[in-house]
């Protein structure tokens, strides 16, 4: 009986070690660290195998895009406020419709600008990594619900 | 015929067995009962090779698969989380909705 339990304990021990080794081999500590810190640029660097030069170029691209992003954000907020004011007043239906159209147009322009930006980022990566990046990011941009805070599943749709 | 049977009966009637007394008899019997065959661990494994090989292979495959699957799930969750962070940074529409 002692050999039965001894052998069983040995098998369990070796299996546990195998599980730990497989876990470590398949995990990505750099990605985990980037996610824990919320450091998206670090994620790009590790997940898409950026060289220092690629990383610097992408960082610069992001910094230059930040101004555009800020401007778009301001315009969308203003258009939303104007549209909400018209809706609250329950006045001119044509003006409200025009405000809605303007807001939709701003959102569409914004989506186009983001897509252009991520394509520029992808162009700075190695071809395979760029394709993988676009396949990951573009569908999520298109699927974002822009009227609610996003969640991890990105399952809000228009 | 009858006389030979009578003589046998007489003989058996008078027969007495007087075995030498052994004070260690009970202890010796119990010792033999308790005594196990002296098998080493390798010999035990050799005699149960098929069952233990099967158990070991199944356990290793299950553990390896579970470890890999768990790691992949962590990687997926980390990637989903960081992609959201990235897109929130990039997307003015989301920022407009989140900002007061």
Explain what you see:
The complex is a heterodimer of chains A (158) and B (100). Chain A is an all-alpha fold. Chain A has helices spanning 2-26, 29-37, 40-47, 52-89, 93-124, 127-143. Chain A starts with a helix and ends in a 15-residue tail after the last helix. Chain B has 100 residues and is mainly α. In chain B, 78% of the residues lie in helices and 0% in strands. Chain B contains five helices and no strands. Chain B is rod-shaped, with a radius of gyration of 41 Å. The chains are: A mainly alpha (158), B mainly alpha (100). The interface between A and B is large, with 60 and 45 residues.
Distance between the termini of chain A: 65 Å
Oligomer: heterodimer
| N-to-C series of helices and strands of chain A | HHHHHH
Order of helices and strands of chain B: HHHHH
Q: What number is the mean pLDDT of chain A? A: 84
How many individual β-strands of chain A?
Answer: 0
Beta-strand portion of chain A reads: under 5%
Q: Radius of gyration of chain B, Cα only, in angstroms?
A: 41 Å
| Strand percentage of chain B | under 5%
Separate helix tally of chain A: 6
The percentage helix of chain A is over 70%
- Cα-atom radius of gyration of chain A: 24 Å
How many individual helices of chain B? Answer: 5
Number of strands of chain B: 0
Biggest chain pair contact, residues each?
A: A-B, 60 and 45 residues
Total domain count of chain B: 1
Fill in the keyword field for this structure.
heterodimer, A: 158 residues, mainly alpha, 6 helices, 0% strand, disordered C terminus, B: 100 residues, 5 helices
Question: Brief overview, please?
Answer:
The complex is a heterodimer of chains A (158) and B (100). Chain A is mostly helical.
Give the arrangement of secondary structure elements:
The complex is a heterodimer of chains A (158) and B (100).
Chain A: H1 2-26, H2 29-37, H3 40-47, H4 52-89, H5 93-124, H6 127-143
Helix pairs in contact in A: 2-3, 4-5, 5-6
Chain B: H1 2-13, H2 25-34, H3 41-47, H4 49-90, H5 92-98
């Amino acid at each position: 009986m002692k050999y039965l339990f001894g052998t069983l304990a040995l098998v369990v021990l070796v299996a546990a070690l195998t599980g730990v080794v497989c876990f470590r081999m398949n995990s990505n500590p750099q990605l985990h660290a980037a996610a824990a810190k919320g450091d998206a640029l670090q994620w790009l660097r590790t997940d898409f195998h950026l060289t220092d030069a690629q990383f610097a170029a992408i960082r610069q691209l992001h910094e230059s895009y930040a101004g555009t992003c800020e401007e778009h954000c301001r315009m969308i907020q203003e258009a939303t406020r104007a549209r909400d004011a018209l809706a609250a007043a329950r006045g001119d239906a044509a003006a409200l419709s025009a405000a809605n159209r303007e807001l939709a147009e701003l959102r569409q322009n914004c989506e186009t600008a983001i897509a252009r930006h991520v394509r520029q980022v992808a162009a700075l990566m190695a071809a395979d990594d760029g394709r993988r990046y676009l396949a990951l990011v573009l569908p999520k941009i298109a699927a974002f619900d822009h009227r609610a805070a996003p969640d991890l599943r990105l399952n809000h749709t228009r | 015929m009858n006389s030979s049977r009578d003589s046998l009966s007489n003989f058996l009637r008078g027969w007495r067995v007087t075995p030498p007394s052994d004070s260690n008899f009970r202890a010796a019997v119990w010792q033999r009962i308790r005594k196990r065959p002296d098998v080493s661990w390798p010999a035990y494994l050799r005699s149960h090779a098929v069952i233990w090989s099967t158990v070991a292979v199944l356990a290793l495959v299950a553990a390896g698969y579970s470890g890999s699957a768990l790691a992949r799930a962590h990687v997926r969750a980390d990637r989903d989380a960081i992609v959201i962070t990235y897109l929130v940074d990039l997307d003015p529409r989301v920022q407009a909705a989140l900002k007061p």
